Amino acid sequence: MSQTPELVIQDLHVAVEGKEILKGVTLTVRKGEIHALMGPNGSGKSTLANTLLGHPRYEVTAGDIRFKGESVLEMEPDERSRLGMFLAFQYPVGIPGVSVANFLRTALNARLAPKEPDGNGKVPARRGIPPKEFRALLQEKMALLRMDESFAGRYLNEGFSGGEKKRAEILQMAILKPEIAVMDETDSGLDIDALRIVSEGVNALAGPEMGVLLITHYQRILNYIKPHFVHVMLDGRIVHSGGAALAHELESKGYDWMREKQEVEP
Predict the structure, then answer these.
(1) Which end of the chain is more exposed for a tag (fewer CB within 10 A), N or C?
(2) With the CA atoms of 145, 150, 152 and 156 taken in that order, what torsion angle do they form, in degrees rounded to the nearest 10?
(3) Measured between alpha carbons, how far apart are the two ends of the chain, in Å?
(4) Which one, of 246, 242, 240, lies nearest residue 265 by Cα?
(5) Strand, coil or helix: 256
(6) How far apart are CA 189 and CA 97, in angstroms?
(7) Domains of the chain, first to last
(8) What contacts 149, CB < 8 A, 6 or more positions away?
(9) Interatomic CA distance for residues 238 and 258, integer angstroms
(10) What is the mean pLDDT of residues 181-206?
(11) CA–CA distance, 63 with 53 (Å, rounded to integer)
């Protein structure tokens, strides 16, 4: 595991339409680590995910988000993505008329585009990944994820099942190769077979070059994706952290047990 923190969340406070949702979240995720963030509905988990990638609806009122030593609070979502951050959505939207392959190639070219101006003060143009090179990359990643090649020609998320939408998100991760992937309730709406297939895709991509923050309600996905750390969020705060065994405790005792535990502890 990397010894240098990649993603550092420092005492983060976030409001939506004037209402405070996150009330001081502190968390560090390094490359090579898998963190599971668990909590009931309304605890602030998805707010954290969207704030990390710069959704304009979420206002940071205090604290900081640092990635590779640099604050990202003033960065647009595309800038955060180019740095190496990625968000897998809970409810991926459909894009009619845009194939999976064309979407992925456009996203990859945006990620690879130069960010710094040259000696003349101009940002150099990039021709993009050659079509032949991209096809080879796409075929390689789809084979890794055991996806039929016909999937690439379908319109993104149009008519997709819940499992297919989540597999499309995993394919995006495989192509873009983020350093930190935030996965917002990836198990939402999946049956057992789809959950297993999506989890196998995450496991195939996880490794020393990528850290994962996996947000979930339930322990079931953690039967397939083994976290190094489990954190419990209640009422906009991370109230407890532990190892993988903590998820099993939550499964058997529920979140009320954790609330009661917090009330009696000094």
Answers:
(1) C
(2) -110
(3) 33
(4) 240
(5) helix
(6) 25
(7) 7-95+179-264 (3.40.50.300)
(8) 139, 142
(9) 11
(10) 88
(11) 15
Quick check: 149 and 139 in contact, CB under 8 A?
A: yes
| Other Cβ atoms closer than 10 A to 158 | 14
Contact 210, 31 (CB under 8 A): yes
- Quote the tokens at residue 86: 């990625």
| 3 state SS of 153 | helix
Residues 6+ apart with CB under 8 A from 130: none
pLDDT digits 0-9 by tens, 68-101: 999 999 999 999 999 999 999 888 889 999 999 9
Tokens of 133: 């090179």
pLDDT above 60 (res 3): no
Could you tell me the two tokens for 27? Answer: 């968390």
| Cβ pair 12, 21 in contact under 8 A | no
Torsions phi, psi of 213, nearest 5?
-110, 105
Q: Which residues contact 132 (CB under 8 A, 6 or more apart)?
A: none
